[in-house]
Write a structure and sequence with these properties.
Layout: H1 6-19, H2 22-36, E1 42-43, E2 57-59, E3 64-68, H3 76-93, E4 99-103, H4 110-123, E5 128-132, H5 134-142, H6 146-152, E6 171-172, E7 174-176, H7 179-188, E8 191-192, H8 203-226, H9 230-249, E9 252-264, E10 271-282, E11 291-292
Parallel strand pairs: 3-4, 4-5, 8-10
Antiparallel strand pairs: 1-2, 2-3, 6-11, 7-9, 9-10
């Protein structure tokens, strides 16, 4: 790898972090934790009905707990709800939490930072609540030795000949009417793109959409564990069917599909994954399924 100066390295790291979605971002943050806390940090992944117990990774000795979430393009109210839910869930599930650190590949709006400082920190004065956004993550990574940076994130020299732009891919999405319809997508996908939803939703519609998408992504992460038990899988599918019926009652429908061999992580050899796409639309009339891409 060609040598680069600190500023160039920092820009490369930021660029790579921005490209990460879903599980790929969590994996990258696990690698960072292993470098920052050698011999202490333990990655955590969702498994079984309790999920990841609101803990994406932690240090048992240092009592530092991490929540990793790629927030790029997310609504402010959804980000605030995610932060509050993850923090309070972690404090309920785990003892002696000294530091709770929210990791994101975005620069959070001032309204979110104000919410954390004015509402959450006064509620939990015994816990150090930190947010590491894009700039902070890049700074912390670049403080490490170059071989450590290489282990955390693929930062290659950009002096090589640029690749021609890829042709846009159009993905045919299918109408999801039941949990059994959408389960194959959740089962084979490794990550997901931010869900598309209609404009002009009421608060009740937004809450219902958020609950549905969160259920989809939770099941995507733990589908392999659920599928060990046919009864657990059927229960999960029935729960999804119930959410789809609630959306239908509000005149909303879910379309979904997958993109195969979607590159994440950038670099010369990006990781190719199956990426799930969720699109919520208003049902006006029977038309051909929409396309996403």
């Amino acid at each position: 790898m060609a040598a680069v100066d600190h500023n160039s390295l920092r820009k490369l790291v930021e660029g790579q972090l921005l490209r990460l979605e879903g599980n790929a971002f969590q994996d990258c943050m696990d690698r960072l934790g292993l470098e920052l806390y050698p011999g202490d940090y333990q990655p955590v992944r969702a498994a079984g009905p309790k999920g990841d117990t609101k803990n994406d990774g932690y240090c048992p000795r240092s009592r530092v707990f991490f929540a990793a979430h790629a927030t790029r393009g997310e609504r402010i109210d959804k980000t605030k709800a995610k932060i509050r839910g993850d923090l309070e869930g972690c404090l309920q599930e785990h003892r002696d939490v000294r530091v709770w650190r929210f990791l994101t590949n975005d620069t959070l709006p001032g309204e979110v930072d104000q919410f954390i400082d004015n509402e959450l920190r006064p509620l939990y004065p015994c816990v150090t609540i930190e947010v590491w956004g894009l700039k902070t993550l890049a700074d912390e990574i670049c403080k490490l030795k170059r071989e450590q940076v290489d282990r955390i994130i693929d930062v290659i020299s950009t002096t090589t000949k640029p690749k021609p732009p890829e042709k846009a891919r159009v993905v045919q999405l299918s109408h999801m009417k039941t949990g059994r319809d959408i389960w194959p997508i959740l089962s084979i996908s490794d990550a997901w793109m931010p869900a598309a939803e209609p404009d002009g939703c009421t608060e009740e519609e937004e809450d219902l959409i958020d609950a549905a998408v969160q259920t989809f992504t939770d099941c995507l992460e733990i589908s392999e564990d659920i599928e060990v038990s046919r009864s657990s899988m059927r229960e999960a599918q029935r729960g999804i069917t119930g959410l789809l019926d609630e959306l239908k009652a509000e005149g909303l429908a879910v379309y979904a599909g997958t993109v195969d061999n979607h590159p994440i992580g950038g670099g010369a050899s990006p990781l190719l994954v199956s990426m799930a796409i969720f699109k919520i639309v208003r049902v006006a009339s029977e038309k051909l399924p929409p396309s996403g891409g």
